[in-house]
Structures are given as C-alpha cells and as structure tokens.
Amino acid sequence: MGIKLSQAGVIDEIKFKELMASRGEFDETAQKMLYGADNKKIAVTPDNANTMLNFFWALGLGNKNEILEQGPISQYGQTNQFASTGGWTLARGDVMDHYSMHPLIDLTPEQQKLVEEVSKNIYRPCCNNPTHFPDCNHGMAMLGLLELMASQGASREIMYQTALKVNAYWFPDQYLTIAKFLKSKNIDWNETSPEKILAKEFSSGSGYQWVSEQVVQPEESEPKGGCAV
C-alpha cells in the first residue's frame, strides 16, 4: 500500500520518513507499510495505531471514490480547508492534486454500496459527522480502511467489528468511558453490537459528550494525537 501511495505522491517518502523518525516511530511496521508491496494482512495494534492512522488517512484521501466527489464533503465549497484535506501535509505538491485522484482500490458496485452504507453509521468522538463525511483525519482514515476491507471481501459484520477495534485504539479513553456507561446500565460491551456502539448515539462528538456526563471519567492514558499528522 505504501509503495502505491508514494508512487502516486499522496505520501512524500522523505516527509513521511522524517516525521516518523522525529517521533521515534519509523519502526519495522512503518517501514513495512511504506516500502512493502504486499499489505493484504495488516495488523492494527495499540502500539502502531498512530502510524496506521496516517497510512489509512493517505489512502482515504487519495483513492478515487464517489463519497469524496459527490458526498457531503464536496458540497460545502473550499474542500481543501477541512482538517482531513488541508491537514495532510505529507503529500508531494498540493494536497488537492491528490484528492480522490488515484484509482488505488477498485471496488465493485456492491462493494461501493457497502462502503457507503457502513460509512454513514460509523462516527468518531472528535467530530459530529459520520465517516461518510470525512472532514477530519480519523474520518478520512476510517474511509480508507473501509474501502480496503470491502475490496478484500469483508462482510458488513467484519467491517463494523474491525472499525470498532480501530476506533478504540485511536480513542482509548473515550471508549473506556462508553464501556463504563454501558456497564452502569447492566449492558455487556461484548454483547453489544459494534454497529450500535459506533452509531451517533455513542460515538459521535455530541453522543460521547452526553455519555461522558453520565459517568466518572477514567484516568487519561497517554494521548493518541489529535486531528493532525
């Protein structure tokens, strides 16, 4: 995946390497993703979640898709000023020269429909829009991840399960709070559908704010970063 993104210019290899190295994160995972040709089996873990966030962000941004060209993000004008676009500073040249410009992932009509349906119901606690409106880095990265999973034949259920795990890696404190809220209502996290947890009620910015007001906040862990590279 990294080779395609680098060749297309969505990722400037030098900029990316310098950024990762400055954070001490240009590790084996980052090198494999940047230089490897076979990324069919990608493992996202708490340790590499930030690195994978940037790769999926680049993928969602650069891959040609109707969601970027006809969806809500294209209907507000000045698309280049969203955090998910203007905030991507690791491209070669102007970021908008890469926005939905590269056929990196080929989806069938059925796979595209699945991505659109699932993306409309996956939220993230930093914003109040679903993945279908990827106005921040987490939304754009989730879009890239959904496209990749759909292209590999993942089912709707697997996509939701994976999305929840990845969201929890990107927002660990927020999902600990949501789990604590569910427990206070005698609801088992493991028996609650990922689709329900990822929906607006719990995972949107406003939904999470309401949930957090109902419970005592857990002690904050090491921050995972905001909506920037």
Automatic annotation (TrEMBL):
Top-level taxon: Bacteria
Name under which the protein is recorded: Uncharacterized protein
Organism for this UniProt entry: Candidatus Sungiibacteriota bacterium
